[in-house]
Amino acid sequence: MEDEKLNWANVMRGFEESKKRNEELAAQMAAQLAAQAALMAEIGVRMDAMLDRLEKMFAESKVEQDAQTAAMRAEVAGIGKSNGMFAEDVYFRALWRRKEFAGIHFDDVSDRMKSKIMLPDGKKLEDEFDIVMTNAASVAIVETKFRAREEDVKELAETVAKNFRLLFPAYKDFKIYLGLGALAFEDKAVKKAREFGIGLIRRVEDNIVYAADWEVKAY
User: In the CATH scheme, what is the code of domain 94-210?
Assistant: First the structure.
């Protein structure tokens, strides 16, 4: 009997130690993500400042500043690409874990889903979709941005569902829900998303939350 009590105590001790290690690992990962988010926010501020300096430089002397302008454009483009990749990674991981969007459960979550076809008029159509969630009857397409602008929402509403159905005809009869994930939203982007019935999601600390208080439309 004493041996059984001792064995049970060892099992419980091992369980508690494992639980503590998992909690410590989760805390470390949360701290790393928070540090990454802070770094990306700082980079965003730097990028805005660079753009302001670029516009002023162009107005003062276009000819003399051509070389500097090209260099700064390359730097800004690099920062923008890095920020976009960070945002896509954040939202893909979160949606892959939750497998839910607009109150709908999805079975599969894919990232960077792309295809190209030749249209009947001889033109080529090629597109890539940041995050695609699917179940037996519905598709959710979530595009990601570091900073969401009004034109991002308009492009999402006007072309994404149409292009997806053309490129992936197996889903042509499915309901398509559109979403936009970003670390920051312009006010006009939020207004336009409400108009088009597009779901918005944002990152708050280590979680993603819906930033939309309206019904997400099925396209």
Answer: 3.40.1350.10
